[in-house]
UniProtKB/TrEMBL annotation:
InterPro entries to which the protein is assigned, alphabetical: Glyco_trans_2-like (IPR001173), Nucleotide-diphossugar_trans (IPR029044)
Family: Belongs to the glycosyltransferase 2 family.
Protein name, entry field: Glycosyl transferase family 2
UniProt keyword annotations, A-Z: Glycosyltransferase, Transferase
Amino acid sequence: MPTISIITAAYAPKSDFLPATADGVRAQVLPAGWDVEWVVQEDGADPSLEAFFHDVPNARYGANGVQLGISATRNLALTRARGRLVQVLDHDDVLLPGALATLLAAFERHEIHWAVGAADDLLPDGTRKAWDSALPFGLVKAGEANAWAEAHGGNWPVHCAGLLVRTDSLRAVGGWASSPVDDDLVAFAALSELGDGWNEQAVTWLYRQHAGQTTRSDALVGLRDAGRLMALQRVKALRGAGMVFAPAAPLGFDGRSHDVNLLGNIKPPASLG
């Protein structure tokens, strides 16, 4: 059965909103013939969240056992993903009911490599704030999102924390970038340069605003522009190399890229600790 892998990098000291995130995962109902798994990878030297996921259907937990940061943690989760599609989900954000089914429909109608739904900000008082999309809704041709960013000071018109993406396409660009900031943006810049995507008008997820967000950390003040610079450099390099994804295969293909063994007997570990 084809599967969507929801990937979440978790971190115990900042896991206050994890119950709401789990509720959003539980609320997902996929079309007949599709399954879902929640691949959670906990960062940190002292993992403590495993028991939380015992009662979450289809959750597959792993732990680093060492502090590696969000991009490395996401990439370790990606080694364990068995789905043909990967849904990005931060451990403080919320998928709304029907989110996965809505985005999946775009993959079934179009030869695309990524899709993203609209997001409302979830404010600390529990209210929501909507945002207008800077890109037209519907099909986004390869390179269009990056062209917009280049014309607007390195600001992208797509919220990368809500992406649904072909697993093999994400792996082809190296997963999430090894960047202290905007690792998801650098990955998206490559994905959207190489292949077409879909900008969904329906609100499919909530982006939580709170004081403990990593993006608000004072330690990252001097690195605010580093990820965007990496993204722009990657886009320029891809264009210079003339690279492009092959036409997207139908989602019915038998993608088995997760069945990779090293020396014939080593599989990706569930835990490094």
